[in-house]
Amino acid sequence: MAPFRPSITAVVVTHDRLDKLSVTLTRLLEQPVQRVIVVDNASTDGTAAWLAAQGDPRLLVHRCDSNLGGAGGFSVGMRLARDEGPSDWTVVMDDDGRPAPGAFDAFYALDLTGWDAIGAAVFHPDGSICEMNRPYRNPFWHPGAFLRTLARMPLGRGRRGFHLTDAEYRADGPILPVDMSSFVGLFLSRAALQRAGLPDPRLFIYGDDQLYTLLMRRQGLRIGFAPQVRFDHDTTAVQGQGGVVLRPLWKVFYMYRNALMAYRVAAGPWFWPLVPLLLRKWRRKAADYGPDAALFRTILDQAVRDGLAARLDRTHDEVLRLTRPD
Questions:
Q1: Does residue 236 register a pLDDT over 90?
Q2: 88 in Cβ contact with 190 (< 8 Å)
């Protein structure tokens, strides 16, 4: 008898990146997947017509009336996966993130006993590890990771104290417990999706995966990192001296407001003592924005005020106006 294979629904969120989506959807439909849900965030580049012309019966398209951002799109897609003919597992990704050939077979080969979610190993198309998708163990919950982070902070390498190492990406390595995994190749069991609920759509973009998976862990759900399950992330993010450089500049607001929301969950009682260190580090990133450094600081300051107040009701139009000062 053939071994039992759990059913999988894939959720893809897209907005005006048909060139990326077409590659991702082709790659997905080559996998042994039972259903693919594409959430089209009101694209204007011909995405809707292209999706309508696809004939694979496994494809379900949901078009939003407006751009809900990644967080809103994942909230919609994960709700559809959970409530309309649910599968045993749901896997999520952006339109520029996609399974490497054989990724689903590698997932099926795992011993999933005791795991509520599995995060993939995410690489750039050139084979290098994608830093923005590197999972981590929350240093505020693990004394060893906390001490390693403290030791590396004076060298500007604190991140290396709690993120997974390159060695832990070996394809023959074991499944490792983590506290945060990104929404590029995150597999969620049916029970975990029902228990964890949906991402907060008000986050719009950035940090929705951090916050979601950290809250999963606080509920006692177990997240594993499976280096055998590989995904590609065809991102065009630019790295500066202080980290990723965000363009257009409105993205700065969401990155840092939402980061404070995630730090509040991760750090717990250490959150407020941590804030001055974060602000000093973040303001230094202005140097990467050249002539836009002053505008970066203005947007950052508003993001910090909203993040500290846990304010999530600012509309996207209001955020866009932050980038057009009088």
A1: no
A2: yes
The 10 Å CB-count burial string (b at 16+, else e) for 47-86 is beeebeebeeeebbbbebeebbbbbbbbbbbbbbbbeeeb
* Residue 191 to residue 241: CA distance in whole angstroms: 42
Q: Which of 49, 8, 45, 2 is nearest to 29 (CA)?
A: 8
Q: Which of 213, 163, 165 is nearest to 187 (CA)?
A: 213
CA atoms within 13 A on the CB side of 4: 4
Q: Is residue 242 within 8 Å of residue 285, measured between CB atoms? A: yes
Give the pLDDT score at 292: 95
Could you tell me which of 255, 272, 270 has the C-alpha nearest to residue 209? 255
Q: What share of the chain is helix, strand, coil (3-state, %, to 5)?
A: 45, 20, 35
Model pLDDT, residue 242: 55
Q: Using one digit for the tens of pLDDT, what is the confidence trace for 108-157?
A: 999 999 999 999 999 999 999 999 999 999 999 999 887 888 887 666 67
Mean pLDDT of 56-74: 97
| Two tokens, residue 185 | 């190749």
Contact call for residues 153 and 198 (beta carbons, < 8 A):
no
Q: Which long-range contacts (CB under 8 A, 24 or more apart) does 244-252 make?
A: 244/132, 245/288, 245/289, 248/323, 249/289, 249/292, 249/295, 249/296, 249/299, 249/323, 250/299, 250/319, 250/320, 250/322, 250/323, 251/205, 251/206, 252/296, 252/299, 252/300, 252/303
| Alpha-carbon gap, residue 23 to 27, rounded angstroms | 6
- Distance, in Å, from the CA atom of 302 to the CA atom of 323, rounded to the nearest integer, reads 11
DSSP string, 55-85: --TTEEEEE-SS--HHHHHHHHHHHHHHHSS
pLDDT in tens, 271-313: 999 999 999 999 999 999 999 999 999 999 999 999 999 999 9
Helices marked H in 268-315? 271-284, 293-308
Please tell me which residue, 211 or 159, carries the higher pLDDT value: 211
Bridge partners, 210 (sequence order):
none
Is residue 240 scored above 60 in pLDDT? no
The label of the residue with tokens 């363009």 reads 247
